[in-house]
Give the backbone structure.
Amino acid sequence: MVAGMAAAPPYRVCARRRTGSRDDDEGVSGQPQVRPDPALELLKIYNTALPQVHGYLLSRCRDRMLAQDLTAETFLATVTAARKQPTPPITTGWLVGVARHKLAALTLRYLDGLPVAQIAEHLGRTMHATEALLVRARAAFRAAYEDPEGVR
C-alpha cells in the first residue's frame, strides 16, 4: 500500500439512483401478491376429518400401526394435492377417498395381480416403499383374518 492512501473497503458502496418519476410505482399495491396456501384449508377440517379418516382405515386394515401410517400418508398427499393447480375441494369425503387410494396397494397386488413396480408407479412411491407397505398390509390382513374380532 502506498503511504498516505487509505485502504479501500472490501466492498463497493454505491448510491442508489432513482430514475423516472415518483409515479413509476403507481398501480403497485403495498400488499404482497402471494396466493394463500391452499393447504390451510386442510387445517380448518383437520380435527374433524382425522378421526374419520383414521377410523375408516382402521376398520378396514385392523392394524393400528398400519392405519396410523396410512393416515399420515393420506394427509401428506392431501397437502401436496392442495398446492397444485387447480386445487381440489378439500372435504372429509375427499380425504376418505385419498385414504381408500392409499389402502388400495394390497388390492392392486393380490386381487388385480399388478406387479410391484406398476403399483409403485400408480401410488407415486418408490419400489422399496411400496414393498414395505405391502409387507405391513399383508401382516395386517393376516392378523385380521386369524382374529376377525380383535383389533391390534
User: Anything to note?
Assistant: Residues 39-146 form one domain.
